[in-house]
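Record minuted for everyone:
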Amino acid sequence: MRSPLRASRAPALVSAIAGVLAFVSSGAAGAQDDIMRVYMDHARVLKLDRPVSKVIIGNADVADATVADAKTIVVTGRNFGTTNIVILDQDGNAIVDERILVSIDEGNTVRVYKQTSRTVLSCTPNCERHAERKTAGTGN
């Protein structure tokens, strides 16, 4: 038999757990939103509110940036991976300081699985091989 005290605390406990879960999930989504996403071999235009003096890319093998005009930067995904971009104004103040994630457009891919490896093909319009990983422990 349940005690009246325990039954009365159950809704409060459920509410508290729901609140914690909502906070945790919103925090995880917020952390993901801090990443600028660019597809490999695609460009993304950044419009800024003030003129740019310098653009710095952490790893130029992953992404590239071009100054289109004083307030417009074009970021192009070069290879899979993450890097960062820092954009400075005339006074050396950071206008943008963000991480960049370069990935493929999953909607245009076909995955081929073998027993010992995986190949990812990008099919826009012809299928091209993008990555191959050996399965751990196969010795290949």
In short: Strands lie at 35-39, 43-47, 54-57, 63-69, 72-77, 81-88, 94-103, 109-113, 117-123, 127-134. The longest strand covers residues 94-103. The mean pLDDT is 76.
